[in-house]
Backbone:
């Protein structure tokens, strides 16, 4: 604890508000999948800033794009047209189900836009009673008052009562329970194609198709939270592509800016038709710097063969991880997820595993259900796979002993 004197009062709280249990590492440089601390130690990054640095650290194309824009104009606000926004929106629309895009700064903001849009859709048509949203237990949709209510996890809600009303939670993967939750007040359904914070739990294609059919049957909007699963993380631009199901609204962030804060809410024309001037906004959302980063990410990801390469690399990593799980049955239970969104389900405490991996030079992310998340940059190569597997194998051996 740092003690500071301020106006004759002893201050014990740190200058940076202590809302994180931070690991004592300060990174100074990054290149590809490697990070270097201020004291010269190197770490292999399989956390990617929690699935954010999708193209690794200091990617030359992203660096060049951001530098070039920084020398022109940083910010103008959405009172004016922003060329980079228009370009990014057109590209996202061209490669998705959507007809229109709202840009913001984070996943929570993208979800707030989605939730507001679902209410506006019904209420602008005169159905003032429609505001409730069906969500899945174990989900995570952000840290705002509304999104922690949508997620419904006690650890996030504790101390923030009363909980924002409007969310009805059902079991993830259970269509019967979801149907039973529909009432005259229901406006939408929200689901992650793969629950990330919840423990890397994929939704079955049949479940996704069932939700689409249910939404159509009851006149609801289907919202996909692809904040973590989107932008190539699973080997396709968007995870819902694996199930051939499309939503009405989708939230994106994390990998969208490659590490620069950028979020987006994508929607069909039908879902967004009542989002007229004044209904929503963002001061910083989609500013020229953020759009330079976003378009640079899209430049790389939309190159022919990019996603096929991600799928091939992830298949190599999966096969080696499955071998490790088989070799250490006292430490690991299974491997789950999709593409480069991987969860190692542990039999030992996951936080202990994460700490020991850090000590050996590998950065990972803990998740729900006692899972260690592996979400490396999509530019992962054989050398990084080999190094990561060696470290995980070694640590698992130590913990088994």
Residues:
């Amino acid at each position: 604890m740092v003690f500071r004197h301020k106006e004759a009062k002893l201050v014990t709280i740190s200058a940076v508000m202590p809302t994180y249990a931070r690991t004592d590492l300060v990174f100074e440089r990054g290149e590809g999948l490697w990070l270097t601390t201020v004291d010269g130690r190197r770490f292999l990054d399989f956390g990617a800033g929690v699935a954010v640095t999708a193209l690794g650290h200091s990617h030359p194309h992203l660096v060049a794009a951001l530098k070039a824009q920084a020398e022109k104009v940083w910010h103008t606000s959405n009172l004016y047209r922003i060329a980079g926004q228009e370009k990014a929106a057109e590209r996202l629309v061209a490669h998705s189900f959507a007809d229109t895009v709202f840009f913001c700064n984070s996943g929570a903001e993208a979800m707030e836009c989605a939730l507001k849009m679902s209410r506006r859709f019904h209420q602008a048509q005169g159905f003032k009673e429609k505001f409730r949203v069906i969500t899945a237990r174990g989900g995570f949709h952000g840290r705002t008052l509304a999104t922690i209510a949508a997620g419904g996890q006690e650890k996030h809600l504790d101390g923030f009562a009363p909980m924002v009303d409007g969310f009805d939670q059902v079991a993830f993967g259970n269509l019967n329970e979801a149907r039973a939750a529909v009432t005259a007040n229901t406006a939408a359904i929200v689901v992650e194609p793969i629950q990330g914070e919840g423990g890397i739990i994929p939704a079955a294609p049949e479940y996704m198709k069932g939700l689409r059919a249910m939404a159509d049957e009851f006149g609801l909007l289907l919202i996909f939270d692809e904040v973590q699963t989107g932008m190539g993380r699973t080997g396709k631009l968007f995870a819902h592509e694996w199930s051939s199901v499309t939503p009405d609204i989708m939230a994106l962030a994390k990998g969208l800016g490659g590490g620069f804060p950028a979020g987006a809410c994508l929607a069909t024309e039908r879902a967004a038709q009542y989002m007229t001037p004044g209904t929503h906004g963002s001061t910083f959302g989609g500013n020229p710097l953020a759009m330079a980063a976003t378009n640079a990410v899209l430049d790389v990801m939309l190159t022919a063969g990019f996603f096929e390469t991600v799928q091939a690399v992830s298949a190599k990593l999966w096969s080696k991880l499955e071998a490790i799980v088989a070799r250490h049955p006292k430490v690991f239970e299974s491997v789950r997820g999709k593409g480069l969104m991987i969860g190692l389900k542990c039999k030992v405490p996951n936080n202990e595993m994460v700490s020991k991996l850090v000590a050996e030079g590998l950065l990972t992310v803990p998740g729900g259900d006692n899972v260690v998340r592996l979400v490396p940059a999509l530019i992962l190569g054989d050398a990084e796979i080999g190094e990561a597997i060696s470290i995980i194998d070694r640590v698992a051996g130590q913990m088994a002993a």
